[in-house]
Write a structure and sequence with these properties.
- The chain is α/β, with parallel strands linked by helices and 338 residues long.
- The protein has helices at 18-34, 48-52, 75-89, 100-112, 225-239, 247-250, 290-293, 326-337; strands spanning 3-9, 37-44, 61-66, 93-97, 116-121, 123-127, 130-137, 142-146, 153-157, 174-175, 206-210, 242-245, 280-284, 301-306, 320-323.
- The strands form 3 sheets. It has a 7-stranded parallel beta sheet with strand order 5-9-4-1-2-3-10, with helices on both faces. Strands 12-11-13-14-15 form a 5-stranded parallel beta sheet. A 3-stranded antiparallel beta sheet has the order 6-7-8.
- The N and C termini lie far apart (57 Å).
- 41% of the residues are buried.
């Protein structure tokens, strides 16, 4: 193994995202295990601030593709930048964080360079003198240990699998020119929800998952969807936690049933949804059977609120199960937080 290339893009403030620093840790460990040379590549409007975060990482070469054309995500310009960095490095293994920006372009770059790509990896390591990776399959019920002979090998690493690298100090970097194709897309700006409107927060310590029970008939024989919306929204606002949902709840909109307005399929957690990596998780009105619990595989502390003492959460799937009415429990919590 000759070279291993770590590639990342900058954020709006020109620093590196946390997921990128985690991927850098994986790249450093792999390079050390294989006695390979570590290279680093940065994409963004500027690279000086991002390069400072690489101080002490041991990279033999730090390269950057910068300019206004690379300030915002765009397939044509990002793919050209990554291809230029890969060719300048000559790396056999390319490691990038599984951000939306890198995940969108890396398979295309691998095809351009006649390479191979594996995405959504949860482990990167060396074994028998070869790079190996871990990846979950069959709706995250099986984990594979796999390697490849085809090179270059491109990888995207899921966030939360390695400790972020902590470096500082000035780092000199080499400017690499990317040959841009005719650009047909113009980025005019970004529209982002306010912090209070944002309900998907990957870096939050706590994940609150809402189940279909929130929209079902309650003890008085009536559904209280508006009350459910208010309770959940107040909790998210007070704790700045992230919001998840069971598949049955987000699917109700297609069935013509009353739904919680700010829930979408992007919130779905479980067998066919996302696998979050928050420190703590609280499930409310969720049955907790296997398809849902699979999505909690990487959550360290699991708690649930359910009226059914024999629900799936009670079968060893939760650290603590509160057998109670989630409406009343969450109202009390919001009162204490307020």
């Amino acid at each position: 193994m000759k070279n291993i290339l770590f590639i990342a893009h900058t954020k709006e403030d020109q620093s590196l995202p946390k997921a990128a620093l985690e991927a850098l840790t994986a790249a450093r460990e792999l390079a050390a295990s294989l006695d390979a040379e570590l290279h680093a590549g940065i994409i963004g409007q500027e690279a000086a601030k991002a390069a400072e975060a690489l101080g002490g990482c041991g990279a033999a070469k730090v390269m950057a593709v910068t300019g206004s054309d690379f300030a915002q995500p765009r397939y044509a310009s990002d793919a050209a930048a990554v291809e230029a960095l890969c060719r300048a490095s000559g790396a056999e293994v390319v490691i990038a964080p599984a951000t939306s920006r890198m995940s969108r372009i890396l398979p295309g770059v691998a095809a351009r360079m006649d390479g191979r790509v594996d995405t959504h990896l949860t482990g990167i390591f060396a074994k028998d003198g070869q790079p190996h990776v871990n990846r979950w399959y069959y709706r995250q019920r099986m984990v594979a240990d796999q390697t490849r002979t085809g090179l270059p090998w491109f990888m995207t690493l899921e966030p939360g699998c390695f400790e972020p690298f902590q470096g500082q100090g000035s780092v000199e970097f080499e400017q690499v020119q990317a040959e841009l194709p005719a650009l047909r897309t113009t980025v005019t700006g970004l529209e982002s929800p306010s912090a209070d409107e944002q309900t998907i927060r990957p870096d939050a310590e706590l994940l609150l998952v809402a189940g279909a029970g929130w929209t079902k008939k309650q003890a008085d024989g009536q559904a209280h969807v508006q009350d459910a919306e208010s309770i959940i929204h107040d909790f998210l606002g007070s704790t700045k936690s992230s919001l998840g949902s069971s598949k049955s709840l987000v699917d109700q909109g297609g069935d013509g049933q009353a739904v919680i307005s700010f829930l979408t399929h992007l919130h779905q957690v479980g067998q066919t949804g996302a696998t979050p990596r928050h420190q703590k998780g609280l499930a409310t009105c969720c049955h907790g059977e296997e398809p849902h619990v699979v999505g909690w595989r990487f959550i360290n502390e699991r708690r649930a609120v359910n009226l059914d003492a024999s629900c799936g959460w009670a079968q060893g799937k939760a650290d603590v199960l509160y057998v109670a009415d989630a409406f009343e429990v969450m109202k009390k919590i919001n009162a204490l937080l307020g």
